[in-house]
Amino acid sequence: MNATIKPFAPPEIVDDVYSDDQYHRLITAVRTHGPWKLVMAHHFTSPEQIVATQSGELPDGEEVKIEDFISPNFRGFLAQDGVCYYPEIEDIFYNADFLSRARSYWGAKYARPELMLFNIQGAASSPDPGHIDGATFRGMTYSNTPVWLMNMMAKSGLFSRWMVKKTQVITWFYKGRLGGGFSYWPDGHDQQPKRLGTPIWNRGVVVSNEMMYHRGESNGPQSRRHPDNFKFHSVFSADGDSDWKITTDGEVIQKVSAKEVRFLAHWNAEVYMDKEEMNLVMDHKDDLNPEKVINMFIDDMRASGQSFSEPTDPMNDKEFIRLLTNAYDIGLPQIYPPEALGPGNE
After folding, report:
1. Which of 256, 262, 304, 343 has its CA 20 to 30 A from that of 36?
2. N-to-C CA span, the chain
3. C-alpha pair distances (Å), 140 with each of 233, 235, 241, 291
4. Residue 335, in any domain of the structure
5. Is residue 258 helix, strand or coil?
6. pTM
7. Could you tell me if 12 and 205 are in contact, meaning their C-beta atoms sit under 8 angstroms apart?
8. What integer pLDDT is reported at residue 318 of this predicted model?
């Protein structure tokens, strides 16, 4: 299964990804349109969903809360489903240079922008042991499918013929030297990793992250990585002319100076090798649906000799999510860059 979770091609490192004007407009949009929720608050409602998205398993007999996984790392969407939410950055989303890079990465003829998001944080720990981004399948996308299920579909290898090719341009803006790098496993999770170190300003990668294990590293002073009264519903927003703040229920629990901020811009495009492949996606004549996906999982697990009760609500059934994780998870990355250490050791 390890051969399944490898990118089509190694990441391409790119410097000076955005112009000064583009960066200014991006960060201004983030300051203007906040506040912003935690990354995890966008995608998960239970620890089981988080573990299914990352790797590993929950300890038996112990109560684990979703708060055990959170770190002050926040996210917002600037564009989704090919639509840019803010006119002031439309030219950045519909980016001819990015589209050219997306096609070139695959050697494809066509590409279209799909979404653009950002992550933003001050000092923060990284409990993430390594993960893959949510893959997209014909008929099963961000708009109608939980991220944990799309990741499990990718890990299983059962749905490869429905997977939509994607390219990301991911760019970091972080002037700090205490952590904050990017670790990635282009040759598989049990092989030697590679790393982009810090400081890392306007440097990016062109990659297919839904098929490559990767992780952002902890950054900033340890004493500031988990502020008091930090909750799953805490938010991040602008403070004054250039600084930021984290609030919980309206209470400011931490102020974050501009020089502390680690900002990530994530642009994503769907890619089609030729018109035939593009039409296959656009015409929806060979789409998956939740019922078919769940039945394929059930049939495959039973064919391997597993015995279990069919779930009545498979999208939310914690035991079924655990079952899928145990059946298809390929495990944690085995080696971490020595400069980055690993989760729990930072």
Report:
1. 343
2. 30
3. 27, 29, 41, 11
4. no
5. helix
6. 0.90
7. yes
8. 87
